[in-house]
Amino acid sequence: MAPPAQYAARSNVDLGGGFIEFLFNGGPAMAPRPPSDVAPSDVMARGEPEAAASAVEADPSRQMDPKFLKQVVAYHGPAKPGTIIIDTPRRFLFLVQDNGTALRYGIGVGRPGFTWAGEKKISAKKEWPDWVPPPEMLQRRPDLPHFMAGGPENPLGARAMYLGSSLYRIHGSNEPWTIGQAVSSGCIRMRNEDVIDLYGRVKVGTTVVVI
Fold it and tell me: Which CATH number is associated with domain 4-33+45-210?
């Protein structure tokens, strides 16, 4: 597997939709579709919930695009079974299997200016994690609580997998209508049912490649 610098150095055309489409479907590499526009809002940063005045309306009745539901897809790439690959431009998370397939989940990703690329390891796993907003988030959002106990109302959702020593996580969400959108400040959010499923399949030390 290529080191983080190689992933970060390539363009989205090389490592975005076209490259991932080739690896997972075996078809011709084509340029990725640009992410759908998302109205600017001060929303989740490493777990940050949507602001009350957000331009993205917090409406639980909104439905996620069915393409972001979990499914099995073919995988033809070099990553070892058990590796997590996060395709930021297309908003999918892949868990590579040992039979030429991968499990594909829909995700929410960082909004413009907050995306990142590289390779991390899962350094910790927590069920119904507590949420402690970091100081830089509280500066942006002084309305946020300084601590929130884990539970259904917690913005980190049902499970969290911590990525290295960073503040970034793969975590659940109590705002499932945001899956497929670019609304976070770097964390990868999933539907609670999906993050529970992924949590049960991976271990501490699992490699996570973000492109």
Answer: 2.40.440.10
Domain boundaries, the chain: 4-33+45-210
DSSP state of 176: G
Among residues 45, 86, 103, 187, which one is catalytic?
Answer: 187
Q: What is the mean pLDDT of residues 189-200?
A: 98
What is the model's pLDDT at position 24?
61
- Token pair listed for 182: 């670019």
* Long-range residue pairs from 81-85, CB within 8 A, at least 24 positions apart, any chain: 82/202, 82/203, 82/206, 82/207, 83/1, 83/206, 83/207, 83/208, 83/209, 84/122, 84/170, 84/198, 84/202, 84/206, 84/207, 84/208, 84/209, 85/20, 85/209, 85/211
What average pLDDT does range 45-72 have in this prediction?
62
Active site residue 171: yes
Q: pLDDT tens, 2-45?
A: 333 333 333 332 334 444 444 565 543 333 333 333 332 333 33
Judge if pTM exceeds 0.85: no
From the list 46, 125, 171, 191, the catalytic residue is 171
